[in-house]
């Protein structure tokens, strides 16, 4: 999907969200829609973020590309490290987009009504599925549990369960790991759950990060 077409359709969804009673006062339309991150070469991996609303309001206007991947910040370094271990280039082989493309007045987790993100995602999901049709069968890395709760059909929403919790991890043993099969998620393709960049610092994920990335790599090599 061309960028202009995607932006046009995204703004149409944004206008519809503004007309939704439960969401109208929680949407921040003036900041527009960040552009997806497009690679310079062949797409071999898709990274899906939640939404662009960072806590610091003063920083939001500077977010013009999904996950700030046009800047060398913490998200870039985290995802660059994952791609490097997968023997991919973040700049050459990764398409990144958000499930919910609009900004909120506050981050969704700040609202007492936990349905804010899921309500918005209902209107964004059809567009996201259409957006990703450009890259058939390319697997997805999904960042964070709120996002996982939305796309997992069976509500298996804890990232750590896909990373082998509570089983003890033995170095080199990839059999404890799991992924979301196409029939088990609302994107209809292979999805690998990953923690948000701040959560990735926890010892559980640090201990298993290299092994889980190696597990993802086995699927990428099969698809190559």
Morphology: globular
Helix content: 25-40%
Give, in spatial order, the strands making up the sheet with the most strands.
2-1-3-4
Tally of extended strands?
A: 4
Radius of gyration: 17 Å
Compressed to H and E, one letter per element, the order equals HEHHHEHEHHEH
Q: CATH homologous superfamily name?
A: Uracil-DNA glycosylase-like domain
Largest sheet: 4 strands, parallel
Q: How far apart lie the N and C ends?
A: 23 Å
Strand content: 5-15%
Description:
The protein is an alpha/beta fold and 224 residues long. It has a single domain, classed as Uracil-DNA Glycosylase, subunit E. The protein is built from eight helices and four strands; from the N terminus they run αβαααβαβααβα. A four-stranded parallel beta sheet has the order 2-1-3-4. α1 (3-18) runs antiparallel to α5 (116-132). The radius of gyration is 17 Å and the shape is globular. The model has no long low-confidence stretch (mean pLDDT 94).
Helices, strands, pairings?
Elements: H1 3-18, E1 45-49, H2 57-60, H3 74-85, H4 90-93, E2 94-98, H5 116-132, E3 140-143, H6 145-151, H7 159-162, E4 191-194, H8 203-223
Parallel strand pairs: 1-2, 1-3, 3-4
Helix pairs in contact: 1-5
Quick recap:
By secondary structure, the chain is α/β, with parallel strands linked by helices.
């Amino acid at each position: 999907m061309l960028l202009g077409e995607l932006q046009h359709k995204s703004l149409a969804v944004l206008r519809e969200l503004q007309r939704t009673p439960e969401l109208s006062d929680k949407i921040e339309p003036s900041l527009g829609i960040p552009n997806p991150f497009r690679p310079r070469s062949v797409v071999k991996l898709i990274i899906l973020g939640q939404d662009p609303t960072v806590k610091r309001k003063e920083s939001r206007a500077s977010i013009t590309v999904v996950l700030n991947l046009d800047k060398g910040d913490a998200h870039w370094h985290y995802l660059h490290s994952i791609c490097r271990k997968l023997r991919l280039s973040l700049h050459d082989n990764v398409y990144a987009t958000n499930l919910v493309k609009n900004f909120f007045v506050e981050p969704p987790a700040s609202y007492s009504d936990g349905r804010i993100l899921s309500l918005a995602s209902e209107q964004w999901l059809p567009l996201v599925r259409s957006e990703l049709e450009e890259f058939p069968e390319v697997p997805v890395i999904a960042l964070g549990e709120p996002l996982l709760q939305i796309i997992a059909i069976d509500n298996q929403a804890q990232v750590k369960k896909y990373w082998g919790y509570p089983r003890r991890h033995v170095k080199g043993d990839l059999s404890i790991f799991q992924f979301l099969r196409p029939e088990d998620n609302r994107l209809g393709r292979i999805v690998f759950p990953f923690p948000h960049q701040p959560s990735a610092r926890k010892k559980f994920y640090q201990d298993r990060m290299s092994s889980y990335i190696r597990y993802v790599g086995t699927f990428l090599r099969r698809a190559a």
